[in-house]
Specification:
It is a single chain. The protein is of the alpha/beta class and 335 residues long. The chain is built from 15 helices and eleven strands. A six-stranded mixed β-sheet has the order 2-1-3-10-4-11, with helices on both faces. The protein has a three-stranded antiparallel β-sheet with strand order 8-5-9. Strand 1, helix 2 and strand 2 form a beta-alpha-beta unit. Helix 2 runs antiparallel to helix 13, helix 4 crosses helix 15 and helix 11 packs across helix 15. The radius of gyration is 21 Å and the shape is globular. 45% of the residues are buried.
């Protein structure tokens, strides 16, 4: 046996032992610890529901089985939370955030208030890609994009820079609709209540969120979805904003603004040690196959078609590589 072959054999034999030691070290670290899942919006919306659902199941798949505690940290449409996660929270794998999926695009275009680098975040996964929609309350009589061009419709949003603001703003600028956007709502649940009270008449939301949180509204025709963006929903009869673009440049701009649809409702951690990041990603992937998790997701009408950590990291990197000219046009829409 040559020296090269002997060395290769020794390395192969040592690899499983090294992996076992690494796994044991991760388990030793997490045992008895608490993993905090930060949620940047209020209670009751899709981000909150999905974060809490994952939190209920992921702990049994993390080595050492730590306690997992979700907590809401609202402010600036989720910016306060991600800035805290990136800059302040311990970088040891005990803090995870449910990240607004528009944030990588916001960084790419240079929105003020971004104090993080999405490329240096460690992305763990999401339950499924998202289909963004614009829905209008039934009492308005607005049933189509063309109707929304003819009369002012008051749309509720959390904050400038949040997708609830960006989406109707994009429709105004590119499609000529007349949404009057009112900000200041902590989260989707509060916007929904405002729609019921007549304070606002429309809002952006994902199709999965409507199905999970307001199935009765859909059944009773309380809202009309007048547009969708991202991967088309097979059970939704509404025009695609991308298809409404008048030229390739407009389509590129729309695709940048709604690039978060590819990320769904993503979870990420900060610059934690690589072995713990790997363990968290593996735990997330295992959770997506967990029979108890799948049963709960089904009961809430959530599709499980996961985007896992490493592919998600590549999606984020692609968004951050947006050409400067396109980014400049995106900034005008998103700020």
């Amino acid at each position: 046996m040559t020296m090269a072959i002997l060395l290769a054999a020794m390395l192969l034999a040592a690899a499983p032992q090294a992996q076992a030691q690494q796994s044991a070290a991760v388990a030793d670290f997490y045992r008895g610890k608490t993993v905090n899942v930060l949620i940047g919006v209020g209670v009751g919306g899709e981000y909150d529901i999905q974060a809490r659902m994952v939190a209920r199941h992921i702990g049994k798949h993390i080595p050492g089985n730590p306690n997992v505690v979700p907590q809401n940290m609202t402010g600036a449409g989720g910016l306060r939370m991600i800035n805290y996660l990136y800059n302040v929270a311990p970088k040891d794998g005990t803090y995870i955030g449910m990240i607004a999926n528009a944030f990588p695009a916001m960084q790419a275009v240079g929105i003020a208030g971004v104090q993080f680098d999405a490329g240096k975040m460690q992305w763990l996964g999401s339950i499924a890609p998202a289909v963004e929609t614009m829905a209008v309350w039934h009492a308005t009589g607005v049933k189509t994009i063309d109707d929304a061009r003819k009369r002012e419709v008051v749309a509720g949003a959390s904050a400038r820079g949040a997708i609830t603001f960006i989406y109707p703003q994009m429709m105004n600028d590119i499609l000529g609709t007349k949404f009057k956007i009112v900000t200041g709502y902590p989260g989707g649940n509060e916007i929904n209540l405002a729609m019921e009270r007549g304070e606002v008449e429309a809002r952006n939301n994902t199709w999965s969120s409507w199905r999970a949180t307001k199935a009765a509204w859909l059944k009773e025709n309380k809202i009309t979805v007048i547009a969708q963006a991202g991967p088309r929903a097979p059970d939704l009869d509404a025009p695609s904003i991308e298809d409404a673009a008048r030229n390739p440049e407009e389509r590129q701009l729309i695709e940048l603004v709604v690039s978060g649809t590819q990320l769904g409702r993503p979870l990420a951690t900060n610059a934690a040690p690589a072995d713990r990041v790997a363990a968290l990603r593996a735990a997330y992937a295992a959770t997506m196959k967990d029979p108890e998790f799948l049963a709960e997701a089904k009961s809430l009408n959530f599709e499980v078609n996961p985007v896992l950590g490493e592919p998600m990291q590549r999606i984020v990197e692609k968004v951050l590589a947006t050409p400067k000219e396109l980014a400049a046009r995106g900034k005008a829409l998103m700020e």
